[in-house]
From TrEMBL:
The protein's name: Acetolactate synthase
Single GO MF descriptor: magnesium ion binding
InterPro entries named among the record's database cross-references: Acetolactate_synth_lsu, AHAS_TPP, DHS-like_NAD/FAD-binding_dom, THDP-binding, Thiamin_PyroP_enz_cen_dom, Thiamin_PyroP_enz_TPP-bd_dom, TPP-bd_CS, TPP_enz
Organism listed in the record: Kroppenstedtia eburnea
PANTHER family (alphabetical): ACETOLACTATE SYNTHASE CATALYTIC SUBUNIT, MITOCHONDRIAL (PTHR18968:SF13), THIAMINE PYROPHOSPHATE ENZYMES (PTHR18968)
PROSITE patterns: TPP_ENZYMES
Amino acid sequence: MAQRLAMSAERSEDLTQPQQEYSGSEILLRCLIEEGVEVIFGYPGGAVLPIYDSLYHGAVKHLLARHEQGAIHAAEGYARATGKPGVVIATSGPGATNLVTGIANAQMDSIPLVCITGNVNQDLIGTDAFQEADITGITMPITKHSYLVTDVRELPRVVKEAFHIASTGRPGPVLVDIPKDVSNGKTGYHYPEQVHIRGYQPKTDPHPLQITRLHQALAEAKKPLILAGGGVVTSGGEHELIAFAETARVPVTTTLMGLGGFPGQHPLWLGMPGMHGTYAANHALLECDLLIGIGARFDDRVTMGRLDKFATGAKIVHIDIDPAEIGKNVDTYIPIVGDVKKSLSAALEGLPRSRSEAWVKRVQGWYREKPNRYRDSDQVLKPQWVIRHLHESTGGDAIVTTDVGQHQMWVAQYFPFAKPRSFITSGGLGTMGFGFPAAIGAQLAHPEATVISVTGDGGFQMTSQELAVIALGNIPVKVAVLNNRCLGMVRQWQEVFYKKRYSEVDLADSPDFVKLAEAYHVKAWRAESKEEAARAWKEALSAPGPAVVDFRIHPEENVYPMVAPGKGLDEMIMGEEES
């Protein structure tokens, strides 16, 4: 590998030699270099062969995934860990359509991506040519913007705009579809320094009058509450949020996407709200008289879709960079459109202290008296114990990725994240198979960090082929499989809502994950007790490269607290408590 990289570096010098004209693929590569792209995730094919021929020079690192879904989730992991756009390349037809899940995932969670797809020659578009797909049409509802490049001379402008759109305002995925004749076409090269897009001027500064109204509302409030979402992490406004909460003395609950945006062990933190939220967070939402939503969407996993039972006695302030979110799900008393970091900075000037001391003590009491609990056991391995052990063994200094389901909720409940961008998960779309490749992208972004992919036995099997990637590159991702031999969250819903009629959730015939990992030349361990789990995890953490630990947890363990769909936050199922 080292020899290969050295050869690539030598060849990259050739690309810098002055030329009069460049091919479209060479121009694309130069544009990516201008944007500071460090790594591209992708999978080659016929329509992108000119682009991959340009990549042969090695001027930009490329990570060869084993499936396009793995590539785009890795790009998402890189973007979520850094805040910079992730870049993915796929060929036309099935290569492009295999990106669709990742594009929708990024759109739902506001993640900046630039997705480059190849297409057939323009004279073949519309003829049902081999591996032709209308990827711009297919992805139109799930991208922030998309381009079909029809002239090689337009390529630099398009790439410049794509990165600008993906990373400004409310971030999101942008697709650039390049027909093969454009990649092969030739022209001179000039990369624009600025972007001018009429009709796209994101508003980032809040209106001063609305900030004044927020101050007035805070001064009058007796039971204020902050609902902080992923917008805090995206904007880098975590320090401003801490200052705001401490100065005004306002308790904070963070959504799933907001975890890490406020320290998980801060005395004003109440945990996560909603379907699997804490007693304190949900009851604070029920009783508050001023609710300040910051970079949060008020989605149905928080409100449960029961607005008649959600913060009914509260005036709602909504701070968001996307004006379309204001008033979409809840009636807003004070709308503040702007960048979260800038809005909080503006609000800190002259910020009054609320009359909330009795309220703060009350909700802190709830949090102490009714924390997330589980009934531990020395006979079976409990997933909550595993997550707590992962936290203790790393001191919380790790980047953790997850898919969706029970393991995702246990991580959210039992791993108190202290820093932004340390929890990477599929929030809005809820994508199985996301977490493992996302961990690869996060690890490439932060080579020295401890990166843990916590996954389930169902989700791991959706993208486990990417084990080849971490093995070949010796990428030190640690995979913790919470293996309950079933689709855990589906099974839990069938237990609670369908009278234990378990339909098609049994995964007992899954492969031996230790042997699977070893087949890819990745070290692996299995653990069925606390003692085995502690020993296996210690050895996995100490291993210099990638590692997999198959934690065989109790198959009937459920995630509690839980609010059933259609129920109000006052109808929580608390479940078992620690003995």
